[in-house]
Amino acid sequence: MAGEEKKKGKRGRACVVVLGDIGRSPRMQYHALSLARQACLEVDIVAYGGSEPYSAILEHKSIHIHKMKQWPAVPPSLPKILKPFMLLFKPLIQFFMLLWFLCFKIAAPDVFLVQNPPSVPTLVAVKWASWLRGSAFIIDWHNFGYTLLALSLGRSSRFVALYHWFERHFGKMANGSLCVTKAMQHELAQNWSIKASVLYDQPPEFFHPATLEEKHKLFCRLDEALREPYGFRDCATIGSRGLSPKDLDDTLFSTLVGTDIVLKQNRPALIVSSTSWTPDEDFGILLEAAVMYDRRVSAILGEDNSIEEDVVWNEMSGGKQYLYPRLIFVITGKGPEKQKYEEKIKRLRLKRVAFRTMWLSAEDYPLLLGSADLGVCLHTSSSGLDLPMKVVDMFGCGLPVCAVSYSCIKELVTVEKDGLLFSSSSELADELLHLFKGFPDACDALKLLKNGALEMGSSARWDVEWEANAKPLISECPDQVISDLQVISRNVI
What we know:
By secondary structure, the chain is of the alpha/beta class. The chain has helices at about 1-5, 25-35, 55-60, 85-105, 120-135, 145-155, 160-170, 180-190, 210-225, 285-300, 310-315, 340-345, 365-370, 390-395, 425-435, 445-460, 460-470, 470-490; strands spanning about 15-20, 40-50, 65-70, 110-115, 135-140, 175-180, 195-200, 255, 260-265, 270-275, 325-330, 355-360, 375, 400-405, 420. The strands form three sheets. The chain has a seven-stranded parallel beta sheet, with helices on both faces. Strands 12-11-10-13-14-15 form a six-stranded parallel beta sheet, with helices on both faces. The protein has a two-stranded antiparallel ribbon with strand order 8-9. Helix 5 links the parallel strand 4 and strand 5 (about 135-140). The chain starts with a helix and ends with a helix.
């Protein structure tokens, strides 16, 4: 029956559901691309707007984005007594809006593929839509929603317990499940009675090491933002005064000599960290580690505490190269705690460390990873069972990482091969000193990790992983649903 319908052109469609900003949901974008390219399906994406998706999504003729209206932020002036009612009202509105889009705004799909979390009201809305439209219902488990809620309400909260029940109950109703780690697969099987296939995050083809030309063009585009300090001047602003038009091909990291692009010998080390600026990523660890690096380098070099920053900066501007380099941390991402930490950054007075926060386009972000010297991951996981996709992207660009250590991170990071793990700001500061001693040419430990990251990034890609683990599930579920409906129909008759 299913095969006959596909031949008649009545089927061959999938719907990807994200109760969030599709531009900030890379894994679901990769799913959409694979459904269109590898499964040859028409793909509808139902999600919120906001950030721009990858150009490959926008340009693909078989992918259609349907943007829901974003729920407005609760105004601070709202009386406290009304806030609980708003919190209850919000999921109800989201539920009916989702149901409207899934049942009336798009053509009936063979399969709904939904991102979890959030679980409320997403899972029930997609399940109802799958019943009404005779479609398969597949969940892609990125994490557990109840553990994220517990970060703000505490594990003992009744709301968390209710959310846990809801997530488990509707999770078991899915026709199939994917998840991001073996540890999560085991948890779902043992305690949720849910059978899930592991689909590890892998970088798509547009995450790759940047060429020297790509690096220089990116540094030129970002040069003004990189040289603009927060509050006080810092080590990234040296030599930036009085730049004339002829200096436009001269950046903090590279310069044009004749027709050749050259990386500067006394350039800063470029460190990238992508964060959602939420409580499950403690950015304070990175700030403390930066302060420790700055002070420890001064102590190692025997610098007097009375030496002003300007003295060191003038020496750097004159071309002096130290045993330990300047560090420029570029922090990408959006989130609720960003402003709080930017205020803290403004108050820092460091000789050899500077911070910049920015939001990059979907095209520039892979280039930044491919141009950096080290990635830092602060993801700790509310459940301890998911893996940070940002590290996968870093490996795809040949970028080694220092990552916060937690229960299943070793499913991704191989210590001393492609990255290092840390549990405190002091450990991270030690790792920065170890990796960047002798930068840029004599830092053998960093080069070793770089080679391991390149090997890791080239060993597997998203389309290969998806073909082996997701495509069979996507293909089998619609036929199973049709078979079940036929059985139910015969029993009714």
